[in-house]
Amino acid sequence: MARDDRLETILTLVRERGGRVTTPRRAIVQALLAADDHVTADDLAEAVQWAYPDVHQSTVYRTLETLTELGVIDHVHLGHGPAVYHFTDQAHHHLVCQDCGRVVQLPLSVLRPLQAKVDREYDFDLDATHFALAGHCSTCRHRQDTP
């Protein structure tokens, strides 16, 4: 779906759920669509404020909360830094290196067997998309192995 089509689809959903489509909200959604990867609220605020200096950071946070409640975006914690946001139609799991911070995106299918086992054996519905799985990437692991 083209970026303009996605923008209008998201804004229509906001309207249908009783929300107003304001210039700041439109700008925030446009900034989300323009982001190449995961983006923080601060990154979005900076991008939006470049074009609309009067848009407050609190407006960005409220809009992100609204879009999360609508199921348009989700956030994930990739370690000790701020949460990052991405569209739910691009859902995936995350691995994050504890040394260099490298993030690897995993397809949902990779952890499905584990989720099924946890559900079956522990009667627990595991949602592994909200937090990253921490470890060490191959580069950092090899660096540790070298004296």
Task: Summarize the SSE layout with pairings.
Blueprint: H1 3-16, H2 23-34, H3 41-51, H4 57-69, E1 73-76, E2 84-87, E3 93-97, E4 103-106, H5 108-122, E5 133-135, H6 138-145
Parallel strand pairs: 3-5
Antiparallel strand pairs: 1-2, 3-4
Helix pairs in contact: 1-2, 2-3, 3-4
Structural write-up:
With 147 residues, the chain is α+β, with helices and mostly antiparallel strands. The protein has 2 domains: 3-74, Arc Repressor Mutant, subunit A, CATH 1.10.10.10; 92-145, Ferric-uptake regulator, C-terminal dimerisarion domain (Dna Ligase, domain 1). Helix content is 50%, strand content 14%. It contains 6 helices and 5 strands; from the N terminus they run H-H-H-H-E-E-E-E-H-E-H. The chain has helices spanning 3-16, 23-34, 41-51, 57-69, 108-122, 138-145; strands at residues 73-76, 84-87, 93-97, 103-106, 133-135. The strands form 2 sheets. The chain has a 3-stranded mixed sheet with strand order 4-3-5. It has a two-stranded antiparallel sheet with strand order 1-2. Strand 3 and strand 4 form a beta hairpin. Helix 1 (3-16) crosses helix 2, helix 2 crosses helix 3 and helix 3 crosses helix 4. The longest helix has 15 residues, at 108-122. It is globular, with a radius of gyration of 18 Å. It starts with a helix and ends with a helix. The mean pLDDT is 90.
Helical fraction equals 40-55%
Give the ordered list of helices and strands: HHHHEEEEHEH
Under the CATH scheme, which architecture of the largest domain would be assigned? Orthogonal Bundle
Overall mean pLDDT stands at 90
Structural class: alpha+beta
Low-confidence runs? none
Q: How large is the count of helical segments?
A: 6
**How far apart lie the N and C ends?**
50 Å
The CATH class designation of the largest domain is: Mainly Alpha
The CATH topology assignment of the largest domain is Arc Repressor Mutant, subunit A
Biggest β-sheet: count, sense, barrel?
3 strands, mixed
